[in-house]
Amino acid sequence: MSIFFKAPLDIEIRLDNEDTRKHVDVTTPHGRMERLPIYKDGESVKGSVTIRTKEGRKVEHLGVKVQLLGCIETNLDGVISSEFLSLATELAAPAILSHPETFPFEFKNVEKQYESYRGKNARLRYYLKVVFSRKSSSDITREKELWVYQYINPPVSTTTKDGPTVKMDVGIEDCLHIEFEYSKSRFSLKDVIIGRIYFLLVRLKIKHMELSLIRRETVGAPPNQITDSETVVRFEIMDGAPVKGETIPIRLFLGGFDLTPTYRDINKKFSARTYLSLVLIDEDARRYFKQSEIILYRDQ
Amino acid sequence: MVVSITEQKQILQSCLSAIKHQSNLMKQCLNENNILQALKHCSNFLNELRTNQLTPKQYYELYIAVFDSLETLSNHLLNSHNLKQHKLEKRQAALDSTSTSDKNADDKSTTHKNVKNGDEISKNAVGKSATTPFLADLYELVQYSGNIVPRLYMMIVIGTTYMSTKGAPGKEIMKDMIEMCRGVQHPIRGLFLRYYLSQRTKHLLPFSNANDFNDTVEFLISNFIEMNKLWVRLQHQGHSSERELRYRERKELKILVGSNLVRLSQVIDDYNGDETYSSIKYYQDKVFPTITEQIIQCRDHLAQSYLIDVLIQIFPDDFHFATLDSLLSDVFLNLHPLLKKSELVATLIERFITYHKFESDMSTSEIKELSLESDEKQKKIKTTIDSTQLFNSFWKFYLKLYELDPQLPSEEHSELLQSFIRLSLTYDPNNYQNLDVVYKFATEKEGQIKANAENDDIWLQLLIVPIRHFDSIKTLFKLPFFHEFYLKLSNKQHQKQISLEIINKLLGITTYGDEDGNTVQEIHEPETFTTTEEVDGIFKYLLVLIKDSDKQNSTSKNLGVTKSITINKGENVISHEFLSNQEKICKVIHLIENPSDPFKNLSNLMYARKKYLNKNFDNIIYTYPTLISRILYKLKIVGYANLRQQKKKKNTEASQDLMITSNFKNLSIIIDELYQYHAEFNSELILKIYLNAASVADQLKQESICYELYTQCFIVYEENLILGSSSYQQHINPHDSLAGGSLQYQSIIHVANKLVSARYFNKENYENLITKLTLYGSKLLKKQDQCRAVYSCSHLWWWCELLIEHGEKSPTVQPEAAKEKSAKENIQKDEDQSSRDREEADDEEDEIELYRDAKRVLECLQKSLRVADSCMDPYLSLKLFVEILNQCLIFNIYGNALADSRYINGLIDLIRTNIDNLRDDDNNAKTDAADEEDDKEARLFKQSVGYFERTLSYIRDQQEVENRFEGIVV
């Protein structure tokens, strides 16, 4: 198809300082790595669009515009996309393009509500789209994806913002009774989870204990909702069977893992939450676990 | 999960090879300076430590392999850290020099010290930002490791490396590591991990000031506590059928736990403390309570016994002295009820004893140059150790222990008490009260617990220990309860053993085995017993030996185990051992000695007999002879002293005389007792004893007693010896005059020997005795015995020696002489009477009076000649003739007028005739077949002829040289 309907021109989107800008590596749905430039909330998106005709042909157009779009794509019964951000700038009035031309553009202080996300059934993407409108045939478009980080400034006082220490008292009657405690429930992505586990009663033959971080992605509204869980981190915190009265320390550095901030009901479309799960494995490989959600955020 | 041994070996091998492989990879990466990759390999081989299929020993092999690899990692990290540091320093120095170039441009090359200063500054200023993060980052990085065991090992290796660099937050890292180690709750893995931690931190522990020191101690203690918990927990792992296995495994691992305490003691040792707070105090207040609490709480048998042992062994003695009370009463009492406290107490006491020895060695060889400080220190130590206090502490503990657990097995009691005794003996050798307390308790205790024979074994040692220890056995007398306890021993065998021990000690025989297994005996000067109390003290322990009779011998004899001795003509069989025991008792009798007061001594000897020695009449045959000879010896001393006094003062002290007399009486009672019970087999011995006593009595001028004793001799002879068979004696050659002869003959000769030297009889008594003896002699069964006995007895009528002091007169002669004088006037008696008068006159001239009766002598000689003649065997009679000839010659020399030359010539002629006759017979016989019988006779004949010729040549010699034997024709 491309042989016959090959677009008669090249559109290139260049961003200012693209070489020096920070990039992030993300995996495409096809499993390849992709390097995307990072933008912050409120940051201007500035760049230029260069359009070259091929083989010196003249191409007539009805106008060229560049759009900055933010959309959420969900995978519920086919891909449904809904835009939550749409900005557009006219680059050129209808004319005939005969030689390469470069148009600078700038979206000033764009508010980017959400952080980019690429999950299994949901994606939140920001991209630039250049539309080259033609009279006769379909428009020629060119997209360039951006990656947006949503920084949340570190809360002033930890107790109020990070939430109180999380204390939980769980157990199986006459079998196991543990109490665990995390210093807080809100963590920045570079944070450390610190806590401890008290064993009040141990009748199980525990082999080891793990802490895992589970990302749970929920797409859609309740009746037809798809939930997908993925264990991001698995971290052994105890080896062997403790006895009554033992305290096991927890320390988990988050910085090194591929975690996402917590997405909570983004545009009523999807959520991506992270759960901290404490798993006890006994000698017969039975697993006992307790999950509790933690709020992750990105800070500077 | 059951893994067979071979499988385990395979697993071990594969683990080891994996470790080797991965650590090689790691080293490669390190060489390429690819630290991240290296850490990955490191983590890989650390993963091998996660196995739980290996025994502790095999796991230890893994651990060692891993340990080595981690050391290389640590070294590399340290080097690269230093390299970076160095570079940074250079840069810093460059910066410094540029900024301060105007000040001192040659700063760099001045001194090393400056560089060092710069180094510190750079650390403080720049280090924070640039250098430390290298290791700190790694420390954080390794914590991403998903598995806890590798993670912690890496944390420790990097953390400790980090600690070893300057300016690192050492204490924080230390605390962090020990905190995180809690994550490993598996006993074996946890133990090794924590052991690794303690090994790595060994040289990094801070204790420059009190605060640091506190933290260090806390660190060590908490590591110890956790390790101990793990160690105890190991016991409860797995199936209950593997209990024993677990126990063994734990024993193998104990050193890991103990190493913590060792380190702790080293740290405390290195820490000098400040002036106000000594290390002892520190130990007492902080370390000791925490550790012991942990030990008590773990409620584990193995852990408690091992750890208390370690505690005792590794901390200095003065620490133990300081905490002794609480160690005993708070700790020991609260230990596992089945735990043998005695072992622990024994170790502790052993330690104190060694310390004491060391101290005394030190004080003896103390050099004056010792600094004042150490002198003070020693003084301080000495004051802290109050020996009575020490003993009391132990004793209090013991009482409490007993109170808490009255069911305590006897072994425990015994062990404990033994230890106490040793302690008391070492620290306070002169305080017998302590010992007595121990024995008193033991006595009561023994009364409560039904003693059986097995138990005795245990108590035995208790008694033997002090015996071996005391310098003087008399010390025992000061312990009244020692004897009571001794009596409680139900097993006679054990009592005997102790008694023997006492005796050996007493006799100064210390027996110990040398390398060859032979027993070597060392003899010391023994001590003596002077008072009745002492005699009592010692003999009450000997009683068991005195009473002992060797009855159980039969079985062992049947088995041929013991060599035995046959006595009483095979009626009884006894063992060597028994005999030597009896001998030892005799030796003890010799020790009853009081040189200053012989009478007291005598009464002590009598006392010993009455109260102890006569307890078993079967055995008095072994002990009485010694006793009697002792008594005689003492009596002799007393008697001579008495005689001398008499001579000086010319008046007799009746009381002394009386006492001697009574002692003799007692003595004869003793001998009589012996005779009563042993007349059957030992009359000969008893006869000799009587004779001895009699001769002593004679020397002491106790005539009546002496007479009595001789009479006793005759009674013994008549009652037993006369009929006594000599079956056990070998055949005696009748031709041999010196070979003895029958028992009867010998007895007579014995008596005669004694009588011939008796000087203080009056004549009547003396003649009575010798006449009687001669009569006995003449009634002997065999001719040759008769003959010889009679010619021997003839000497009794012809004294040849004075034997008494010059100037004294023998009562045997005196009254007779007086009688003679009165009789002389009336009747001139027969020839020999006059001749005796003449002789006596001669004697008087010489002022020598000897009892002589020539007529009787001649009668005896005639009698013996007659007997000799009546012998059926001509050769024997020839021999006897020659013997009689010799006797005649003796009498001739000593002036017996009746044995004159005429008589002797006649005898010589008689012998010659006999010889000629026999020679003719012989010649006649020689024509016949010369058989063996004749050969023998010829030999006997030759002997007799030779004897005769020697006698003749003697006569000739005497005639020429001494002008004797006038008129004898040879």
TrEMBL record, chain A:
GO biological process assignments: intracellular protein transport; protein retention in Golgi apparatus; retrograde transport, endosome to Golgi
Q: Name one GO molecular function term.
A: protein transporter activity
Concerning Pfam families, the annotation shows:
Vps26 (PF03643)
Q: Report one GO cellular component.
A: CROP complex
The record ties this protein, via InterPro entries, to:
Arrestin-like_C (IPR014752), Ig_E-set (IPR014756), Vps26-related (IPR028934)
Tell me the protein family, please: Belongs to the VPS26 family.
Q: Which PANTHER family match?
A: VACUOLAR PROTEIN SORTING 26 RELATED
Name of the protein: Vacuolar protein sorting-associated protein 26
Q: What is the species of this protein?
A: Scheffersomyces stipitis (strain ATCC 58785 / CBS 6054 / NBRC 10063 / NRRL Y-11545) (Yeast)
What taxonomic lineage is listed for the species of origin? Answer: Eukaryota, Fungi, Dikarya, Ascomycota, Saccharomycotina
TrEMBL record, chain B:
Which InterPro entries does UniProt cross-reference here?
A: Vps35, Vps35_C
Region feature Disordered, mapped onto this chain: 89-120, 813-846
**What Pfam families would the database entry show?**
Vps35 (PF03635)
Record's compositionally biased regions (Basic and acidic residues): 103-120, 817-839
Q: Name one GO molecular function term.
A: cargo adaptor activity
Provide the GO biological process annotations: intracellular protein transport; negative regulation of endoplasmic reticulum unfolded protein response; protein retention in Golgi apparatus; retrograde transport, endosome to Golgi
Asked if the Swiss-Prot or TrEMBL record annotates the protein with the keyword Membrane, the reply is yes
Chief localization class? membrane
Q: What membrane topology was assigned to this protein in its record? A: Peripheral membrane protein
Any single Gene Ontology cellular-component annotation: retromer, cargo-selective complex
What this protein is reported to do is described as:
Plays a role in vesicular protein sorting.
Q: Which family does it belong to?
A: Belongs to the VPS35 family.
Name under which the protein is recorded = Vacuolar protein sorting-associated protein 35
Protein species of origin: Scheffersomyces stipitis (strain ATCC 58785 / CBS 6054 / NBRC 10063 / NRRL Y-11545)
